[in-house]
UniProtKB/TrEMBL annotation:
Protein name as it appears in the record: histidine kinase
The species this protein was found in: Streptomyces diastatochromogenes
Catalytic activity: ATP + protein L-histidine = ADP + protein N-phospho-L-histidine
Pfam family, one: HisKA_3
Signal transduction histidine kinase subgroup 3 dimerisation and phosphoacceptor domain span: 215-279
One Gene Ontology MF term: ATP binding
Annotated EC: 2.7.13.3
Amino acid sequence: MTRAWGLLFGGRARRRWIHLILGGALAMPYVLVGSVVVGPLTGVNDVFGSLPLQLGSFAVGLPLAAVTSLFPLTRPLEAGAARALCGIDADALAHGPARTRSERGRTAAWFTLHLGLGGILAGMSLALPPFAVTLVLLPLLVQPSFGGLELPEALDHTWALALSPVAGLAMLVALAACAAACGALLAHWAPALLGPGPADRLAAAEARAADLAVRNRLARELHDSVGHALSAVTLQASAARRVLDTDPEFVREALAAIEDTTRRTVGELDAVLGVLRDGDTPGTAPAPTLAADLDGLLRRTRAAGQRVTATVDTGRTALPPLVSREAYRIVQEGLSNALKHAGEPVTLHIATADGHLDITVENPLGPCPAPRPGGGHGLRGIADRVRLLGGTSLAGAEHGAWRLHVRLPLKGST
């Protein structure tokens, strides 16, 4: 009994009833247009004084509703109303306008169904409750204290008068049942008629892929810039602490390198986080490149006490900007890994040959470091950068040393 009451008068049933009444309200302009057509054809001035003519006007107006449903905003508006009032999962319905002929046809079918059922239920909701309430109160209304209403001959019987409240309540329950059935029908057909088509799914997949690409790029930038800076600052501070009393000049150089590293990293961090803030303008700090900051990167790495030998056999200013920027991050990550895990010295070789930029970072194998929770992401980030540029990368132990070799194409890197 409780379940039946919930199906007929529960919160979801009431919201779906409201959805149907909205459909009836939307149908009214089309019914008025239909009456303009039906009236002259039948020669009747008062179309709304006849139920058959009202139904005729309704039948003429529904095809007009199907035509106007081709308006681009119809599908997103109808889908939004169905989500809010019919209790349909948000992902089951499309968000944008219909793009293909099939989607427009399904939208027209839904709009016609919504207005058709809504118009009928709205008319029933206006007409039946007053009549049903009259039947419920009829035994009281015929009492002398209420003026002693005269009954029609069909109701001028004791048994008819006794059954009139039952008939009135049955009408109200029947109306609720019709509304629940029509609401369930609309909820069942909404995903099929308003659901995303192949074009919508493709657009959603492309949007997700673009969002994932941006997130991965930001993650790489944060890992390479902030991760390298923290590793360098940690080693610089550790080296300065060990020689604090014996080598003040080294301490001053280490502190200067820490200041320079943190200042540059804050600027890069602001540039990356600016992309994440809605409505914010991205930071203006330029992305570091081999041409602009390779010497500074080597100086800050050496300030931590790490011996780095660098050989550069290429004109850094002649590199394409994209290659120069990504190569800087690759070198930065290679040196960062050497700072954290490797022995000394570190050898860096950068050269151009056969239309490619070759980057090699080598260092002796150090003691196996303690594993970090979740593992590192540096080599994966390097592989992602290289793959996006169409290059190759190799990293691993070789003859008692750790070797990272990256080859990036120069042509087509725009």
